[in-house]
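Complex 199.
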Amino acid sequence: MFLKNLTLKGFKSFADSTNMVLEPGVTVVVGPNGSGKSNVVDAMAWVLGAQSPKAVRSQKMDDVIFAGTAARPALGRAEVSITIDNSDGTLGVEFNEVTITRILFRTGESEYMINGVTCRLLDVQEMLSDAGVGRQQHVIVSQGQIDAVLNARPEERRAIIEEAAGVLKFRKRKEKAERRLDATEANLLRVQDLLREVR
Ligand code: ATP
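Predicted structure with adenosine-5'-triphosphate bound:
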């Protein structure tokens, strides 16, 4: 599995549609200060489902939409697509290539797509968590994060490793199932009380 392609349109400083073709191995993005290198990484985090504006270095989510310059008006929507080569089947879907798209309109509406078909954020998250790219996105290591990992409490560090190993989603599902069981037991008790009353 590797990233094949990244397309940004109206995302942060990338007003025009910009396509980046990536090869297996190491890719280095170089450019002067403020030219948009970190915006490229933000775009990756965003299209993979980042929910907090902080995760994409913003105050509010619509800050990711091109805000305009002296020469160019602001845009009404941001769109990012990422294409992942899945020929080794890591993503657990039958496609050799998977393109994830996220669109955000200034009105607040947003849309996710997998291979051009509209889907829910949850569908994107579930597919990615099979490959260890979970909600916390530990695949993107930003400046200062190494220190944060080293200084984390043991249980926090364990959660990071579990997510990268793809275990966290099973723990979450187990917790959800346990909550449902508790609710069902409470319902059963209530039914038994009612039965006792009518007898
Ligand atoms: P450095 O090397 O200093 O870390 P960088 O190449 O990583 O810089 P970025 O932080 O990616 O640069 O880009 C910053 C630029 O992106 C700034 O010029 C900022 O004005 C611009 N920018 C950020 N958000 C938007 C937006 N919504 N609309 C237009 N431009 C934006």
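The mean pLDDT is 91.
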